[in-house]
Amino acid sequence: MNSFLASKPEGRIVLFGAPFDSTSSYRPGSRFGPQAIREASHSLETFSPEQLLDLEECPFTDDHDLELPFGDPCPALDLIEQKAARVISHGGVPFLLGGEHLVSLGAIRAASSMYPNLRVVHLDAHADLRDEYLGMRLSHATVMRRVLDLVGQDRLHQIGIRSCTREEHELSSRLSTTPEKVSLLAGENPCYLTCDIDILDPSVLPGTGTPDPGGLSFRELSNLLVSMITRLRVVGMDIVELSPGLDPSGVSAVVAAKLVRESLLALHRAPACG
Amino acid sequence: MNSFLASKPEGRIVLFGAPFDSTSSYRPGSRFGPQAIREASHSLETFSPEQLLDLEECPFTDDHDLELPFGDPCPALDLIEQKAARVISHGGVPFLLGGEHLVSLGAIRAASSMYPNLRVVHLDAHADLRDEYLGMRLSHATVMRRVLDLVGQDRLHQIGIRSCTREEHELSSRLSTTPEKVSLLAGENPCYLTCDIDILDPSVLPGTGTPDPGGLSFRELSNLLVSMITRLRVVGMDIVELSPGLDPSGVSAVVAAKLVRESLLALHRAPACG
Amino acid sequence: MNSFLASKPEGRIVLFGAPFDSTSSYRPGSRFGPQAIREASHSLETFSPEQLLDLEECPFTDDHDLELPFGDPCPALDLIEQKAARVISHGGVPFLLGGEHLVSLGAIRAASSMYPNLRVVHLDAHADLRDEYLGMRLSHATVMRRVLDLVGQDRLHQIGIRSCTREEHELSSRLSTTPEKVSLLAGENPCYLTCDIDILDPSVLPGTGTPDPGGLSFRELSNLLVSMITRLRVVGMDIVELSPGLDPSGVSAVVAAKLVRESLLALHRAPACG
Amino acid sequence: MNSFLASKPEGRIVLFGAPFDSTSSYRPGSRFGPQAIREASHSLETFSPEQLLDLEECPFTDDHDLELPFGDPCPALDLIEQKAARVISHGGVPFLLGGEHLVSLGAIRAASSMYPNLRVVHLDAHADLRDEYLGMRLSHATVMRRVLDLVGQDRLHQIGIRSCTREEHELSSRLSTTPEKVSLLAGENPCYLTCDIDILDPSVLPGTGTPDPGGLSFRELSNLLVSMITRLRVVGMDIVELSPGLDPSGVSAVVAAKLVRESLLALHRAPACG
Amino acid sequence: MNSFLASKPEGRIVLFGAPFDSTSSYRPGSRFGPQAIREASHSLETFSPEQLLDLEECPFTDDHDLELPFGDPCPALDLIEQKAARVISHGGVPFLLGGEHLVSLGAIRAASSMYPNLRVVHLDAHADLRDEYLGMRLSHATVMRRVLDLVGQDRLHQIGIRSCTREEHELSSRLSTTPEKVSLLAGENPCYLTCDIDILDPSVLPGTGTPDPGGLSFRELSNLLVSMITRLRVVGMDIVELSPGLDPSGVSAVVAAKLVRESLLALHRAPACG
Amino acid sequence: MNSFLASKPEGRIVLFGAPFDSTSSYRPGSRFGPQAIREASHSLETFSPEQLLDLEECPFTDDHDLELPFGDPCPALDLIEQKAARVISHGGVPFLLGGEHLVSLGAIRAASSMYPNLRVVHLDAHADLRDEYLGMRLSHATVMRRVLDLVGQDRLHQIGIRSCTREEHELSSRLSTTPEKVSLLAGENPCYLTCDIDILDPSVLPGTGTPDPGGLSFRELSNLLVSMITRLRVVGMDIVELSPGLDPSGVSAVVAAKLVRESLLALHRAPACG
Lengths: 274, 274, 274, 274, 274, 274
Description:
alpha/beta, seven-stranded parallel β-sheet, 9 strands
């Protein structure tokens, strides 16, 4: 099988990798995520029996990985923002592959500039709402707090959180919602969907930096993504925090690749993106 | 604990390994499956609290591994067919341990010669119904198409398929069925049961060449096998595609070994084989 | 994040490790369990969104690992018994981290001396009720038989057993019970809770010496532990048989660490221990 | 660093991968060799302080991997032969990355057609001179016997052999030679250089299917290759049998990549290829 | 290739495994050594180009592994001693595969009873001369002290020691010798040769419990063993401390298997054993 | 064995870890180096038969790991500089355990402030002399260029470099020297010794981010370090770039730990530090 991520240059959906993991505090390695997803895609079919659609029939572009400097996150975030802004300004939908969760901030900044009433839907095991972490305001553990600064509490919705500090919990419980409520609230408003793959149970996806037991099954997340994408007006999305080297069986990368496939097909079905 | 696969020479059920994986396109290694199952069986009891039966009381024979040449699959398939035919002609039930899925074709050829009205029940994540794959007509990805050529559409039943091409899907959706329907249709007719172990979710069994997320739990497959075996007239069966080296934890081999134990005990309970 | 096991010297609950695995027959390595739990705890928060409690507010002490000789288990069991007896005689609750399951015998001996009407609640995949194993009466495979000798059949309760010999099955089926029944029977009597972590399904916890497929999910075990601890009068407990080296993804240690966190918080909520 | 294998379209030297390993009898996986070499090349510089040359200044082409069917080696060998013949007929020098050693036969057939007086220089731990292996005449264990059939005893030279059967030893000891003698004998005649990377000691390169202790150090092999390439008229060459998955440290692929770099630079220095 | 350890029942040399590792203090796992050596032997030829001899022509017996209890070393040592005594009393030469180094004590006790003037030649990285270790007198770290108690300082010779305490160093420096001196001193006296495989550099053999950098190369140890065996009157020997699970590349087991092959062939060449 | 790094509070030599690896471009993970060295030290003796000295008799302090933020290297370097300056101003010798090589810059800045005529001796496989890398001036690949900016060409000496760009090579060949010359040039001047452990051959130390084949053996590096330390006036030193997770055998950490032991003992023998 060929990689189903082979470029389809005519697509409005534009995949790109953001291989950055310098603020990961526990176990780095998500920089290898985008490449691992591409490789694992060779073992999957392009056709989805769930959605009865084939990627061969769904135009999208894979712009490969951004070249990002390691260390200080500021220049990396700027490069991600510029890339996402370029995609959006050409009428496209950026689909970012992480990298650590902080990379989402670059794409959300771009989407938020373009769509002032942007809503952000956040699927994750961790609240990521600390104001500072190890003295840093830009970190995988603070990323959604920075998004909150950007869009405000009414426009940030969290689903699946099962790990937080007591301080984060107070805030997170206010942001917490269900897929049904999100789709009611969002209506026709533009949404950015950010999915930290550690929302999955570690038995399903051991290859992530800070696994937290007690998460979703593959089918639960796959159905959640497809249902959100087809019901919301998604103007940008990402799947982040795959750290393939932590899972020597290679299964984690296949799990991420299948989620990317199902998401691409669902984006195609959604009227705004196809 | 000793291996529960220690030979019981008087048994009608004859286990043997077919350590062949030369057509595996993504990640080879299923050649090490049979040996890994034997080793993992040391860590399991011979008694099943589910079936209240002990392998010590259930005669069967382990004829160890066939010596198969690598590369061209034709001579390997011939050797497998000859072995299975010998077992059947002595009134036995061949129980094949793979190896890649293509090895099943050898045993099914033998069973189909002996039992002209043979039905084949196929448990798998993948349809394996391509007519050709990478230019080859004999491949792990075409094996069930070759079985279809042999027994016809009315006698091939598929359960659990979650991965296929669009072309395969049309065919596969006609072959797709449920355990209940199979047992109604098959009645007293002889059945060959072929189980590609990647029907399990990769969280349960990461050690397989082409894992596809979203599969069965251990209990679902274990119950499915036991219920099929005790309700059908099984004249041959196999469990294939364990690739133990891909799972450094060793759990995948234990999963396969427990499925072999439960299947052996279920075959013993079935009137035809005990 | 700092380890949530940093010492809180004022606590009535006293954690300590028993890094002993010399009678492990299949795959040793549980000696590294306690240290791996401490390290994995760095990646978890101290706050539990399930129990709405934070370890920072729950006093307990971590007395680190006992220094135990390898080989003959008698001196190791004596050292464990002395340590547990010291904790109990100072009004504390020993919380032992294994190590192989045999280490529980030391702590149960101590608890049984102090509390003559002690009940033992045993969560495990394996019955561990052999009278002898490979010629040894003190072994991970005989440990609950030795506990039975100590407390008698009426005071030993087993939950979750899915692997045993036919002989063990007769005995185990009489000891088998449900969480509800245990809490009815035990009432205000002192209980020792021993949890062999292989009660979990191997997909959730591959890092254990004798994994047996078909076990509990993380949530099932976490809820079971919390519900037992908050409903019984727990005077001692242990979590044993994590063998971290068998799981290169590191997830197994995180699973164990989260169970330790939830158990510590639940012990704090139970009136007797807080 | 970018991969130093980025294509230089103007080069006379044409790299290509032959990802085939279907006849591997012990541990397959060399199909992943070419891709692993490309990835590992990112961690190396393009400049060689030994040869004071930079790949940036040395034109060559990387034609990526051939798409080869698995199983029967005949069609794969045909495709390799056609590719090598095409390169040679355009005045180029094919540089093959294996794959198992059998793939060399395809390239040597092409070179032997084009250059009737071709000499073959064989660096390896194993003699590979069996006439048949597991009933097969085309196998990694028979490949040099097939080359012998093609070029005759006077034109096949072996260096470094440390493993063989008694039968092979008689033949191999006649073919055995030293670098100095080879360069005297070969003179201006065209030579094909085939290097099975297991000539290295397994401490240097654990990632190969049949490691044999007691081999060369990295410097010994690197110097040997450079000295042979710069002294002979090399019209084709290969480096085969890297099996990267067997070495989780990733070092084996880096070793192979550095040997490819040094060989490319040496080929450039040799007047015939530069 | 078949395992070269397939039984040759007529042989005077009797191989057997002692899969015991319960006193290992750092990293257990040498219990899997003997089985790993048998499996790795499949990848090696039976012929040695160094000694120009083939195992096919050298009678020996492989009596497989003793079944040893884990935990207390006393019963295990008794079983090993009985086995070695039986071999010697039938005119044979026991060749023990460990297991941790303590297992040698069983065989040396047997040899010392039979041959009162026995000399012991000890190849190792570690002196193993502690009188007690973690409170135990029977341990991998005290084994040569127990041998010293048995045979006296004049009859114990150490080669290769590079790790010891200051106390051990005083004793060890008196026992330290060279191969040449040993063969002069020993003359026609019976010798037991015990080889802890960690005398090799960890780059050559990472799969051992307490690796110590700075050791021998494969060729150095192989030559040392062959030269000692062919010059001394070896009445028993062992190779111990391979811990195969610590080396995921599998190379360590191949290294040990090749040393066993060379040792068997050298024993055959020695007049007393052939 | 206890860790030989247990604190000796009275020592002038002060060990501390700098677990930072955010600018690592190829494979991060050196943040886990200091902790892995401490753990591996449990398997080594405190006595060195080479130097006939025991760490028990050599006072030093282990101040454990600095808590460093990930991402932007500036604050991390500041914290390292402050720590090293504190040690030096109390008359101590800082001994830094990395972490990526960039961490050395913090310590060298401190030493250079205190000792204006400081010389830096640099042992490494890589020149690390780029002026910029991926747009960054502070990176593991530019660290020695920043040191050069600080101390000037006459005071920076490189040993062992085998990998560089053509630009670096011009500069590096001027800085390149031998141990003998360094000790002549340096005389009584204060020296800082920085050792990137990838100067070792990858067979000896696979656990490092950018292994480069063809390096030193363990004995060569151990002798080099001891001879430099005992001949120079070392006022600060470091050993960096161990990335333990890349070597699943654990040997790399043991290699680093033994080098730390030998260095500590050598520092003790040097008159200035003992």
